[in-house]
Amino acid sequence: MSLAVFDIDGVVADVRHRLHHLHPRKSWTGFFRDAADDPLLPEGARLALDLAGRHEVVWLTGRPEWLRDVTEDWLRGHDLTGT
Q: What are phi and psi of 27, to 5 degrees?
């Protein structure tokens, strides 16, 4: 089976509410700390779900390892783990 590779931030997770952590000084800890509150980006979610019918979906992210549980919970909470 072929793969469909998706990033999370900015593709299925709306990160706009946490961009303020990056300006004027970057606080990656603050940026990632608020990730659990990301709204779903419906366009990206629809595409992931659509492609899951024909491909194995792989989630690729630059999120730090300490955010793994939050990220997995977020994906499950938005019904994206079956993709």
A: -125, 85
* 0.85 surpassed by pTM: yes
Contacts of 36 (CB under 8 A, 6+ apart): 70, 73, 74
Give 68-73's long-range contacts (Cβ < 8 A, gap of 24+). Answer: 70/35, 70/36, 71/8, 71/35, 73/36
Model confidence pLDDT, tens digit, residues 10-54: 999 999 999 999 999 999 999 999 999 999 999 999 999 999 999
Tally: H helices and E strands in the chain: 3, 2
